[in-house]
Design a protein that fits this description.
Blueprint lengths: L1 H5 L1 H27 L4 H6 L8 H9 L3 H7 L3 H12 L7 H29 L7
Helix pairs in contact: 4-5, 6-7
């Protein structure tokens, strides 16, 4: 059994599982207690830059890309952005480190730009009211 956990792919899979559980568990608890999946909206009544990402990705999984884009125009940037933030250790070489900074900056700017555009066009921080 010790040899099994000594394998790198097992440790990576277990790490991913723990990270997913650490992220999903509080969201499920907040959703169950308060009736809203977004902790920022639940606690402060303000939509965050990632508000709507879950619904957009669920729509994309149903292959309804028009609905996904209308729910959150930057839905396609959310998963790569979070993946890159959690996997910084894969980009240790100097050239890859520069690539990491460029990609994270572009994806982050896209998500924040979408957020600013939504705030301006809706006239506030509550997009879904």
């Amino acid at each position: 059994m010790k040899r099994f956990f000594a394998k790198k792919w097992v440790r990576v899979c277990l790490t991913h599982l723990v990270l997913i559980l650490l992220i999903v568990t509080p969201i499920v608890l907040i959703s169950w207690i308060f009736g809203s999946a977004c902790p920022t909206y639940t606690l402060f009544s303000v939509c965050c830059p990632f508000c709507g990402m879950t619904r957009a990705h669920l729509a994309a999984l149903r292959l309804d890309f028009a609905a996904a884009f209308s729910i959150h125009p930057a839905f396609f940037a959310g998963i790569p952005f979070l993946w890159m933030l959690f996997h910084q250790q894969l980009f240790q070489k100097k050239q890859l480190r520069v690539l990491w900074w460029v990609l994270v900056s572009v994806l982050g700017a896209l998500i924040l730009g979408t957020y600013v555009a939504r705030v301006i066009t809706t006239g506030g921080f509550d997009f879904f009211a």
